[in-house]
Amino acid sequence: MDKEGPSEQRIAVWMSMADHFLDTDTTDEVPATARLCVEAGLSIDEARAIWRYEVTPALYLNIWSVAGEWACWDRGALVQRIFHTRARLRGPLGYLLYRIRVHFNHSVWLEIESCMRSQLEQRS
């Protein structure tokens, strides 16, 4: 990612992933999120890192909140929030923090990953 700011493709991926942190059922949106990741040229590992270390640190509190955001995210505020709060800590400790923050939302990532695998297999 560019130090001056995220690319439009990265923002589109962030926005799509962020929808899964709303206080609504987003099961039907999983394939679209996977497609955006594939179209952005992301590998599964790259998309997973974005989910764990960019989107989750900025939005995990919403899924813990009883009165969390449920309608939609403001694009500008969301981009700024993710850009400035994305985790710098990766590796085993970063993964542990991720799991503590969003253990019950991890299944959404697994669904996205599965859809990405299917879409990537169809392309080859």
Task: Give an overview in words.
This protein is mainly α and 124 residues long. 67% of the residues lie in helices and 0% in strands. It is built from six helices and no strands. The longest helix is centred in the middle third of the chain and has 21 residues. The radius of gyration is 14 Å and the shape is globular. The mean pLDDT is 87.
Topology:
Elements: H1 8-18, H2 30-39, H3 44-64, H4 75-85, H5 91-102, H6 106-123
How many distinct beta strands? 0
Number of helices: 6
Mean pLDDT: 87
Shape: globular
**What's the story with the biggest beta sheet?**
none
Measure the end-to-end span: 27 Å
Helix content: 55-70%
Q: Which stretches of 5+ consecutive residues score pLDDT under 50?
A: none
Overall number of domains: 1
- Determine Rg (CA atoms, Å): 14 Å
How much β-strand is present in the residues? under 5%
Write the H/E string, N to C: HHHHHH
Structural class: mainly alpha
Quaternary structure annotation: single chain
Summary tags:
mainly alpha; globular; 124 residues; single chain
